Amino acid sequence: MKLGVYIINLDRSADRWAAVRAKADEYCIDVIRVAATDGHELSQEDFRDVDWKGFARHGGRTILPGEYGCYRSHINCLSTLLESDFDAALVMEDDIQITVDLTKRAIAILEATPDADVVKLFNHRSRGFLSVATSALGDEIGRCLHGPQGSAACYVITRRGAGKVLPFLRAMRFPFDVALERGWHHGSKVFTVRHNIVSLMSHSSDSQIGHRADYSQVKFFGPKRLPTHLLRAAEYFRRIRYALAI
């Protein structure tokens, strides 16, 4: 299997690129930098392919500039995969701590689940895990009943998966990590590992997307948030049904 390794990195974050590149060089892993879209340098009038009403209904708030930049960066990364000759790609944000066996474990995970389109390798939570396979290197793969699991900082996606996902994710109506998990929507077979196979670097605490206060400022309250509660309940049942179909 020919596996590409993409690192999403902002032009203004040369220090982050230097740190992740140094670790990749140490382990003789070839990495390709994908220039990230900096949402903070754009006005909302510059945002393209955004379903503003859909995002507000599902998210209960408006979009942060950093979220838009993150979303467009991942979409660009998947488009880059389709333009390459790679069979699959390991997609990472620049705060992931690369390990010596990362690419071997990613390939082993895909070999253990040959029908997988996407496998998330890092999550903030993995409750209600249902196992489907274990890789030759010991990583357990499956789906979770509970979610969203949070984070799209590290995942492996096949060329087939990118082709399935992109048409459905062109217009932004969810944060990218949530949109990626919604296999019931875009028809992709999305899995996750039970335990993260990577960790975050120390600079990850300085979020380039937004901090708690930023999210609070754009959050809806009261009756305006009622549609969000109803839609999230429906999404939760869709997630459970999708997980059980494993």
Question: What does it look like?
Answer:
The chain is α/β, with parallel strands linked by helices and 246 residues long. The protein has helices spanning 14-26, 52-59, 65-83, 102-112, 159-169, 176-181, 183-186, 212-218, 226-244; strands at 3-9, 32-35, 88-93, 96-97, 118-120, 129-134, 140-144, 154-158, 190-193, 199-200. It comes from Rhizobium calliandrae. InterPro entries: Glyco_trans_25.
Helices and strands: which structural class? alpha/beta
Secondary structure tally: strands: 10
How are the strands of the largest sheet arranged?
Answer: 2-1-3-8-5-9-7-6
Gyration radius (Cα, Å) is: 17 Å
Q: How large is the share of residues in beta strands?
A: 15-25%
How far apart, in Å, are the first and last alpha carbons?
A: 24 Å
Unreliable sequence segments: none
The largest sheet, given as strand count, sense and whether it forms a barrel, is: 8 strands, mixed
Bin the helical content: 25-40%
Order of helices and strands: EHEHHEEHEEEEHHHEEHH
Query: What characteristic shape results from the CA principal axes?
Result: globular
* Overall pLDDT level: 95
Number of helices: 9
Short description:
With 246 residues, the protein is α/β, with parallel strands linked by helices. It contains 9 helices and 10 strands.
